[in-house]
Amino acid sequence: MEEELLLIPGPTNLSPRVRAVMGAPQIGHSSPKFYDSFKELLQLTADVFMGKRGLPFVITGSGTCAMEAVVASLIEPKDKVMVLDTGAFGQRFALINEALGADVEVLPSKLGSPSDTKILDERLSSEPYKAVFVTHVDTSSTVANPVSELSKVVKKNGALCVIDGVCSIGGSPFNFEELGIDVAITASQKALGAPPGASLLYLADNALTILEKRKSPIRSYYFNLARWRKVMEDPRVYLATPATQVILALREALRMVMEEGLEIRWKRHKLISEALRSGIKGLGMKIVAEAGFEADTVTGCYTPEGLAAQIHSRLTLDHNILVAMGFGPERERMLRIGHFGNLTGSQTLVALSALEATLKSLNVNVETDALAGARDILAKLA
Ligand SMILES: Cc1ncc(COP(=O)(O)O)c(C=O)c1O
Which of 79, 198, 219, 235 could hold 130 in an S-S bridge, CB 3.0 to 4.6 Å? Predict the structure, then answer.
């Protein structure tokens, strides 16, 4: 049977190269072969984040592991933090901060809208905050935050800037150095094209200093970045057994990212996202994210009234394509389409044609040649 086309917002289909690594014989986690691979992976991680003044970390665990490790390690009980809520993953950062004793303030946004830079500036200049948590692309709302403007405001006001790039890094422009931020995180299973199971972080030197100089002890063993730092500086140090296959598969996936080239990869993701939006609008559906703040990696659309679940299941049963429903209260109104990793222009067109056929099969009126605009955009990828 042909492989299902995964258009959920992670995990994504793996390339044959990465799959071959997953199926290769087990190697020892404390063997020189593994140490060398891990060192190469750390260099590739720094390259993908475009980080120079700091330290990359790769830890076995999902993206939430990276989120929790940052909070447990850099935030002390009662520290005042600001969380920008553009969806469920900003809210998760607030929950983690609350669980670990921070004094949390949340800056909410309307569904589909980015965080408001002006209000953020007003809040941050009114009292000191230890850190601000920003989600670059919130996978639940499909909104891309203007990270460059937001991080400037955060740094101007003297707070640590932490960016969740789980749904952006590898698929949208992201340059740690240019952003001048302190911490960024991502996960293996989205735009990097690797299987789930590895969290990746980059900490700037000043974040490493804060880590070393904190007053209270870090109340965690596994989420303790001061401990993990020693492993990253010398992978022969044992802290916990890494998921070796996932780590090696991630190295292969990052090699592929760098072989393609970041700029070319970002452009591919951008064109695919433009084509998808054009096709979705051509089919008469509305995009969830406000114009100008749509993500290059995931697209949300409102389906014709009451049809989200049926479209979702027909795409799976009739076309072998898996998309996601809306998140939380939006579940029944929205579809979310993940488009990152190794996705090609022709797969994008297949997906749009399947969506068109599905709508027609549900008696939705679809204009003739609704996908013409998408086809034109995708032609630029050839
Ligand atoms: C933006 C964002 N942050 C964090 C996470 C959490 O990652 P994980 O599910 O790998 O723990 C996700 C997961 O989809 C995400 O999209």
Answer: 79
Binding pocket residue ranges, ligand 1, CB within 6 Å: 10, 62-64, 89, 135, 138-139, 164, 166-167, 187
Whether residue 248 is found in the same domain as residue 227: yes
Judge whether 124 and 161 are in contact, CB under 8 Å: no
In eight-state DSSP terms, residue 329 is G
Distance CA 266, CA 42 (A): 21
Bridge partner list, 323: 7
Residue 136 has pLDDT above 70, yes or no: yes
Amino acid at 161: C
Apex 280 CA angle, 275 and 284, nearest 5: 140
Ligand 1 geometric centre to CA of 91 (Å): 11
Residue whose tokens read 């090696």: 248
Which 3 state secondary structure label does DSSP give 44? Answer: helix
**Are 107 and 245 found together in one domain?**
yes
- 324 and 250 together in one domain: no
User: Ligand 1 centre from 282 Cα, in Å?
Assistant: 30
In a shared domain, residues 158 and 305: no
3-state SS assignment for residue 186:
strand
pLDDT band at 1 (very low <50, low <70, confident <90, very high): low
User: What is the pLDDT of the chain when averaged over all its residues?
Assistant: 97
Query: What is the percent of the chain with per-residue pLDDT over 90, rounded to a whole number?
Result: 98
CATH of the domain at 269: 3.90.1150.10
